[in-house]
Amino acid sequence: MESLRGGSHGKGDLSPSPEAVRMLRAMVLRDRQEGEEPDLSDEQLRSNDQFQQDEMLALEAIYGDNLDTFGEKSAPRSFQIHVYCEIPDGISVSAELLRVVDDYPNNRFFDTFSVEHLAPISLTCIMPPPYPSHHSPYFTLGVQWLDSVKISSLCHMLDSIWAQQPGQEVVFEWVQWLQSSALSHLGFDDGIVIRQPDDSMMDPVDVRVVGEILSVDDIVQRLINYNEEQLQESFLHGLHVCMICFSEYKGIDFIKLPCHHYCCRNCMETYSRMHVKEGSVMKLVCPDEKCGGLVPPNLLKSLLGEADFERWERLILQRTLDSMADVAYCPRCQTACLEDEDNAQCTKCLFSFCTRCRDRRQ
User: How many whole angstroms from its chain centre is CA 17?
Assistant: First the structure.
């Protein structure tokens, strides 16, 4: 389950977008110019200010690093909260993609995959002086994996929550609803569905929606990238058992291979150096006996050091050449040569020889 306290999501990840801040300030200015904000007595303003102060203290205590305040202290209270939808067992994503198949350019098909982490909903707010007695907070919403129409629907739902309890602090209710009910509200109980936009059926977009218009392919890539980043972050901070020494360490002390198997760095370094020393470099693969996945050269270089890595490169080249049926070695200088019908000529010393008897070619 995604925790609103953020887990590995540090405060450095929170950065209210300039677009959201600009939009909010434009809303405040517009309402003031049009007289939408009521004139209140000094006593009512002081009461509202105290309510806002108490609410901000509660929000900071509950949401911790997922809340970021911004703006001048003398200005209306401004902040952003990153809200993580509850998906305790992960969630499936079905994306409608367009591909050219058999000269038909508009073939549509669904690509389905699962994610364990969803990028957060960014709720950015300004509390005006009449809040909470006479006015709701100004807000914007940004969600990188939703289209503008669906984000607009979430905005309207936040308006509805305020309308049901006017005059009361509402930000906590908004965040709780986004966290627990946003997916259900959008019809995503059984999984997220991302479709190609249909201009003929587009509803008006709420002015409080933040973000660029993305293609389905871009949304899919963002979902996958974010999920992979968070899985790696979770791995680095979790405890795991090494498959070689069976000791438990934090993920930051492990080497994770492309096949997704992993073992502690000390064991992986010892394992790699042993095979290079013994010359059994073709066996230097994933330590899981049922896998045999390759260990990338760039990873081996960091594990072995310069000298052992150079020896690994020489041995790999030698073993590869030895396995090639059309390669023979020059009897004079031992250079690898390509064989042509039992004959070969060394590219280094130019000696021509018979690959069967190893004598000079007649």
Answer: 19
CA count, 13 A, side-chain hemisphere, 304: 24
Q: Please tell me the distance from the alpha carbon of residue 48 to that of residue 46, in angstroms, as a whole number.
A: 5
Pair 160, 140: CB distance under 8 Å:
no
Q: Is the Cβ–Cβ distance between 131 and 158 less than 8 Å?
A: no
Tokens read off for 323? 């396995």
How does pLDDT run across 198-254, given as a tens digit for each residue? 654 456 789 999 987 778 888 899 999 999 999 999 999 999 999 999 999 999 999
For residue range 321-342, what is the model confidence (pLDDT) as tens digits?
A: 776 667 777 888 877 777 777 7
What's the start-to-end Cα distance of the chain, in Å? 78
Supply the pLDDT for residue 13.
Answer: 47
Please tell me the pTM assigned to this model: 0.73
Beta-sheet strands, E only, within the chain: 67-70, 77-83, 91-101, 104-115, 121-127, 138-142, 192-194, 209-210, 239-241, 248-250, 254-256, 262-264, 327-329, 336-338, 343-345, 352-354
Q: Is 351 helix (H, G, I), strand (E, B) or coil?
A: coil
Whole-number Å distance between alpha carbons of 57 and 135: 20
- One-letter identity of residue 260: H
- Euclidean distance between CA atoms 159 and 52, whole angstroms: 19
Low-confidence ranges of the chain (pLDDT < 50): 1-13, 200-201
Characterize 172-210 residue by residue with b for buried, 16 or more Cβ atoms within 10 angstroms of its Cβ, and e for exposed: eebbebbbeebbeebebeeebebeeeeeeeeeeebebbb
